[in-house]
Amino acid sequence: MTFQELNLIEPILRALKTEGYTTPTPIQAQAIPLVLQRRDLLGCAQTGTGKTAAFSIPLLQILSQERTNHKEPKAIKALILTPTRELAIQIDESLAAYGRHTGLKHMVIFGGVSQNPQTDALRRGIDILVATPGRLLDLMNQGYVHLSQLKVLILDEADRMLDMGFVHDVKRIIAKVPAKRQTLFFSATMPKEIQQLADTILNNPAKVEVTPVSSTADTINQSVFFVDKGDKRALLNHILKDKSIERVLVFTRTKHGADKVVKDLNRNGITAEAIHGNKSQNARQRALNNFKSSTTRVLVATDIAARGIDVDELTHVIQYELPEVPETYVHRIGRTGRAGANGIAFAFCDEEEKDLLKDIHKLIAKTIPVDESHPYPLKQLTPQERIKKDLEKSKVKQVPSSSERNKQKRGNGNRRWGNKRPAKAQ
Length: 426
Description:
Layout: H1 10-19, H2 26-36, E1 41-45, H3 51-69, E2 78-81, H4 85-98, E3 106-109, H5 116-124, E4 128-131, H6 133-141, E5 152-155, H7 158-163, H8 167-174, E6 182-187, H9 192-201, E7 206-210, E8 220-226, H10 232-239, E9 248-251, H11 255-267, E10 272-275, H12 281-292, E11 298-301, H13 303-306, E12 316-319, H14 326-333, E13 343-349, H15 354-364, H16 383-398, H17 402-410, H18 415-418
Parallel strand pairs: 1-6, 1-7, 2-4, 2-5, 3-4, 5-6, 8-13, 9-11, 9-12, 10-11, 12-13
Helix pairs in contact: 2-3, 3-4, 6-8, 14-15
């Protein structure tokens, strides 16, 4: 199938040709016709499947055709909600690329920067608004954003909005948009609360599911390196001695860990920058731009900050630390091997992470091959050391968490606090 067979208008086909796209990905082939039919859509798709184009291309066509038929005053016709600034910027860039010949105006708003340029653009009038929930609510409350003429509402990466605590903000925004609208809802996973939200806001939706989160792309060559925790930095430097590895995305569990890895790489003459929630918006965008232009060879990221990073020709992803949630492993390696290209994913695993690796193997229903060719093999524990470690593990499991201890102290007096979800480490 080609994009021409999807009955797209000439201005969009011309833009796609300029971008070098002729064949839609599976989710694009399924979703674009449904969206053009004005159906509500529930899409379950992980990163790297082409879902941004799956909703932005038909959205541009719908608004372009309606604009031709109806000379309406400039008002926001479509709202795209995303969890992170980086993802919002990526979507806005996609709209610019695919909609360059449509004449439609779009903009992106997010927090962490001055709102003045954003409010100036809103006053001039736009067709499509891409936004993060917090800044959008601020501008709505100040009277700068009006959604009374909204025709299409799109929620992207809804599961991440839940993880980041944005669901209540999203519900407040949805309460302000017209009931008569088309709604497109995308999420990589479907936890109970996200499914309930989808059921509430979608009207008889068509369902599209491509590459479940439990599967990894066949184009990605995966390897696991067993290594002691204290040798991980040395192993990373060893791997990066290979100059053919030109651009690498490295994942850490924490912001502090990301900064430590960057400091060590820079000390060893390897250009690296970190991207995480403690960085200013300008610093994050500068790091991303440097990575895209190959000024920076290594980008070290936490999971939430990495959502929305879309870099062409990213050949290598390295998991410096294994994630505590096995699905996150799939999200991470999905940054490479996109659109049929080959990718390489390395995972470092120390003694304490072996249980996490077992969970990943169970999820993806395969065993990741072990690379034993490196100079920092995991030291084998003696039987006595093994028994000691197992005892330490069992003690940790028996000790109540801080939240549980707090619950015991407070009793049931503050139910709202007691039911609060624990914050996830970045």
